[in-house]
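Subject: sequence -> structure tokens, single chain

Hey, anyone have a minute? Need the predicted structure for the following. Not urgent.
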Amino acid sequence: MVGIGAEWLEIVTKTAVVIVDDHQIVRQGLRGLIEAQPDLAVVGEAETGAGALRCMALIPADLMILDLDLPDISGLEVLTNLSRDHPKVRVLVFSSLPADLLAAAVLDAGAAAYVSKAAGSAAILEALRLMVRDLHEDPEGWRLH
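Reply:
Had a minute. Here:
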């Protein structure tokens, strides 16, 4: 008999998040912030763009937090691939690059939201909450603008 463990059952009832950033300390901080939320679960992490795409091919996720400045392929290229191959995944771009120069471009490329790394944790959680709410209200796809 095959059963589902309580830990796995708890994860599948939460909104699944993948974190992509080339800095381990950033991934750890985001993981701590997300795992403190009762309805969110980190299901994967990647430090490269290629790793992000592999992760999404292997692990079903609802949301991705994506840095733009990655060591192999750009976050913008990752975003373009995700929009094509996983159109239901909501992507929060989380970057230190200037919002005034990039926010419109990443939203046009398919991101659901853009949050500067200069913003506090409240801004990240607010963006994630909006993405989760709209994920449930419009599962076929949308974009925050």
